[in-house]
Design goal:
It is built from twelve helices and eight strands. It is an alpha/beta fold. Helix 2 (83-96) crosses helix 3 (118-129) and helix 6 packs across helix 7.
Length: 300
């Protein structure tokens, strides 16, 4: 994991979170550019954001983190890794980083948040239920609208205890095929190995089925009817070839968030960051630079 070190630790209410800061210190970039917070989904980790994060970090602070139960963050028996917990943890992290209205970046501390898959539901819950303040929000193939969960996902959720007892080799093959199915272009073997690795071994295998068992649609049902309250600039990005969550959900979500723009990424499946990193980075750079221009106009 040395290719993506998360050297910082935060003791959240759902276990230790590993995180990292890339780029210049907040407020130190040209014009005091706002920091960006990147949120990953399931069954992934912040590693999927590595290309986008490094591009954005050329002129601003970028904060990445592994959700409790994922990646390099704590995995523990009985751990609450539900979407309710993840939304709460994001709000805790923003306070720890002194963002969401804090003094870290002077008058421009409210971050730009970019969130994928379960990270989308996490960011939406933190904003709508926990009062987390963002300058703008970009949602990339997010879990946000019912119904969600593939037939495989639902099968595992209903029988998590049974799947947890699979022989390690069979479990590893299952996870590998599942993660690979998020890409329409196909993942390089090394990338697939890196994404699967946190779910291997006794601890990782238990953690994999734990997070699926706790994936409850009620956690998006609680906020779904409130998307019309979002009053910040919003972008919805979607892989045009997403087989996990259909593009129709992207169109519906964009119609529910006032002023949201929908950007379809050609040739990309659900794991847009891996299938079309250059295209996604270009779209996100345009979005954050729009906020930079708004901030510059506000200073004049």
């Amino acid at each position: 994991m040395d290719d993506w070190p998360l050297g910082e630790r935060f003791p959240s209410t759902s276990g230790e979170v590993r995180w990292a800061r890339l780029g210049p210190e907040a407020g130190a970039g040209p014009g005091g550019l706002r920091p960006v917070v990147l949120c990953h989904g399931t069954p992934f980790s912040s590693y999927v954001w590595r290309t986008v994060a490094r591009a954005l970090a050329r002129d601003r602070t970028v904060l990445v983190w592994d959700m409790p139960g994922y990646g390099r963050s704590e995995q523990a028996p009985g751990q609450d890794v539900s979407l309710a917990a993840q939304g709460r943890v994001l709000a805790e992290l923003l306070a720890h980083w002194r963002l969401s209205g804090g003094p870290l970046a002077g008058p421009y501390a409210e971050p730009l948040v970019v969130a994928h898959d379960f990270g989308g539901a996490t960011a939406l819950r933190a904003h709508l239920l926990h009062g987390a303040r963002y300058a703008a929000l970009a949602l990339v193939d997010p879990v946000a609208l019912a119904p969600w969960g593939s037939p495989f996902f639902r099968l595992v959720a209903e029988h998590a205890a049974v799947f947890e007892e699979l022989p390690p080799a069979l479990h590893g093959a299952l996870v590998r095929e599942y993660v690979a199915s998020a890409s329409s272009a196909g993942l390089p073997a090394a990338t697939l190995d890196r994404l699967v690795e946190p779910w291997l071994g006794a601890r990782g295998q238990a953690a994999f089925y734990r997070q699926i068992a706790q994936a409850d649609q009620r956690h998006t049902d609680e906020v779904q009817e409130r998307y019309g309250e979002i009053a910040i600039p919003a972008l919805v990005c979607w892989g045009a070839d997403d087989t996990w969550i259909p593009v129709a959900k992207g169109r519906e979500l964009a119609s529910r968030v006032p002023g949201a723009r929908l950007e379809l990424i050609a040739g990309a499946g659900h794991l847009v960051q891996e299938d079309a990193p250059a295209q996604l980075t270009a779209v996100l750079l345009d979005f954050v630079r729009e906020q930079d221009r708004r901030d510059e106009a506000g200073r004049d």
